[in-house]
């Protein structure tokens, strides 16, 4: 991952504003300062790609009798603010060993620290439903957002829904009504198809202040692009090592115990939402930011060629589509159907199915990604669980 390649692949995708990631890491912040140039709006630029200074923090601490493990996204308006944040965090622990540093401080303390440095910063609870490291996670989270942040809750304006949930699932919890539901790509690896697989669409003049205003008020926040929640690797309950997964309804029948190893199942996002929801499934939140589920183009190509995502043949095909139609989002959302089919019939038809929300997803669980199933002749049929070797190659 570097500024040159991130910018290149973001342009292929059709993005125009990225979070930098990892501004806490000494070597990465040095590259950011070297490569990114301020454009006078609180955002930064590299060869036409805009960036907002951003990092992710892991808070692991004990509160109310339980160990809590929660990730947070930070947004900052300038390098001066970032330097102050990093200086303060160094008093809590190390910054040089990981892009997502771990501190034994609470979510409330993190929000207080950041907002005291600069109230223009934004702190966003990350992928709030995933089991192990999140605000509502079944293994280490809270049942109520107020319990996490206390008096600092006034500074929380948005949450990340994460890959394994979508806005509709979050609408079932009335305690989240006042928060913007954001979708961001958790792109920790140098695999470009992860960039922008989830993203946010704003109708704003590109500036830091306008971005923060849109997040805090939801005005000019037009839409989120999502993967189907089943695609996320913690949607269903299950055990990866036992090759077993099941829905929450099925899980209750076996008391949430794995029938293979007889140990408690990893409780997934759908189950956890069901536990905290005070509204029925299918509830439609009036005035909420709409969303659309998509599947990355590279993954569609991989499915139809039977080749791994990291192979030369998949990326040769991907780049031919980009050369012909401009950007991935243009291809998935805008290019007329007849043009898609004329360019490459099988893949074109698959893109249309994605666009029309007609693709089934075999739900992910316990760290295993969900698997899109197109049910077309010639499509490779996936195994129940992808091996670790295949998973690394495939995703």
Task: Characterise the protein shown here.
- The protein has 395 residues and is an alpha/beta fold.
- It has two domains: 3-230, Alpha-Beta Barrel (TIM Barrel); 299-394.
- Helices cover 33% and strands 18% of the residues.
- The chain is built from 15 helices and 16 strands.
- Strands 1, 2, 3, 4, 5, 6 and 7 form a seven-stranded mixed sheet that branches.
- The longest helix is centred in the C-terminal third of the chain and has 14 residues, at 312-325.
- The protein is globular, with a radius of gyration of 21 Å.
- The two termini are 16 Å apart.
- Mean pLDDT is 92; it is low at 376-395.
**Shape estimate:** globular
| Helix run count | 15
Summed over residues and divided by their number, the pLDDT gives a mean of 92
| Count of all domains | 2
Strand content: 15-25%
Give me the CATH architecture of the largest domain, please.
Alpha-Beta Barrel
- Structural class of the secondary structure composition? alpha/beta
The major β-sheet equals: 7 strands, mixed
| Alpha-carbon Rg, integer | 21 Å
Proportion of helical residues:
25-40%
The assembly state of the depicted protein chains is: single chain
Look at the structure and give the CATH class of the largest domain. Alpha Beta
Number of strands: 16
* Cα end-to-end separation: 16 Å
Low-confidence stretches: 376-395
Q: Which topology of the largest domain does CATH recognise?
A: TIM Barrel
Summarize the structure.
The protein is α/β, with parallel strands linked by helices and 395 residues long. Helices cover 33% and strands 18% of the residues.
